[in-house]
Design brief:
By secondary structure, the protein is of the alpha+beta class. It contains two helices and three strands, in the order βαββα.
Length: 66
């Protein structure tokens, strides 16, 4: 039996694309540090016209990342 409510164990995965001036300004390292600090896993990469990322972890942390 767990002392935590089931919702505290809920996990989410979120995929985001960001366009505009997001390349060459340290955006990917910022996203990486934020995700790491929130205990999230995933990836972030430059694409031709955007930065794409996917994060996964506890629902509350993913919501904070948004």
């Amino acid at each position: 039996m767990h002392d935590h409510p089931a919702s505290s164990q809920e996990r989410l995965r979120l995929r985001i694309s960001v366009t505009g001036t997001v390349q060459g300004i340290g955006f990917r390292p910022f996203v990486y540090r934020l995700a790491r600090d929130l205990g999230l896993s995933g990836w972030v990469r430059n694409e031709s016209d955007r930065v794409a990322m996917e994060v996964e972890g506890k629902a509350a942390a993913v919501r904070m990342f948004e």
